[in-house]
User: Fold N-acetyltransferase from Sphaerotilus hippei.
Amino acid sequence: MGSNDGLKSESLDTNGAAAGLPPRVPAAPWRLELHEDPTTLEATAWNALLQASPQPTPFLRHEFLAALHRSASAVPATGWTPLFFTLRSGTTPDAPLEAAAALYLKRHSYGEYVFDWAWADAWQQAGQRYYPKLLGAVPFTPVPGSRLLARSDAARAALLQAIERFADEQGLSSAHLLFVDEADRAAARAQGWLQREGVQFHWHNRHHDGQGEPYADFADFLASLNRDKRKKIQQERRYVREAGVSFEALRGTGIREADWDHFHACYVQTYREHRSSPYLSRAFFAEVAQTLPEHWLLFVARRGGERVASSLVALDPEQRVAYGRYWGCTQDIPHLHFSACYHEPLDWCVRERFRRFEGGAQGEHKMARGLLPVRTFSAHWLRHPGFADAVARFLAQESAGIEAYVGELAERNPFK
Assistant:
């Protein structure tokens, strides 16, 4: 393994005090390895570890992470320096892989969706250096799931403590795990990391009381909504239909290269309209189309035979979960966004008996389309005790605000 910015690689023997880890680490030898190039990791072993974790998602598959690296989307030049951690249950390189984490040294806070710009500003105004920080996340992907991939709670705790120790020894301001699952959250809480909450909007393929069977069809879903919301969706779909727009759902290898080209053009156009630059290159989508074809669903909108919009949905066929990801259009047609990003994907999920559709970050407007608020969580370690105390007070106030916000949203439930 090469070196970067003076980073260290070592074996940790948690039997002895020389390791410098808290005594609650289980008595077992662990070998920690740091990897600056995720493509060099063995894909089968990584993916097996992911599947053994409590909440796997396609976005932490080796193929996805490798594509981010090879396409130059998440690399040092874009502010994402890979530093993947692996933990083996022995002191030799061929010892079994017990835990791993996709980590990055970040030189900014773009592409994360858990916003810490104010923390960085405050720390830098105090004359300190906030960046680089250590980040455990999927670049550009606010999807909850396992971040500390581990075969046991013991391995998860050892991995988390290795992350904290590394950040401390390297003099980094902080370490962060974003959109964690419950196992990661519990491990971080036990380690004393700060907890932060957020809100997303997800749709579930069941009646809103949670007791009914999956929806029989889209009409059955609409019937479960209150009258105003049901009428709004019907009007939006009718307007798009009367504008001469039709949709085609393409899945996996059925997505042709021309469809990918049009989708990417739409994706770039969306960023351009917001005076921003897209995070993901065409090369990234070309690679995941080849390496993860079963994980993609593309809705293509046509008007008069011409492609006018695309909406890309990621799929987890095993878990029966769909993730709304990217969209864009080349013609401005009222309500087309709602149809392409919500109505058509939800209709598809009902037909294919998918359990859940995650709508991505933010967006109260999603409630009017049948998505309900769901809390998300992240964990944060800050090296300076005074800074950590100030952030903890901020998070306590923020958490109270989120509690009130979720309560307010509950009063606007779109279901009967």
User: Anything to note?
Assistant: The chain is about 35% helix and 25% strand. The chain has two domains: 11-198+375-410, 206-354.
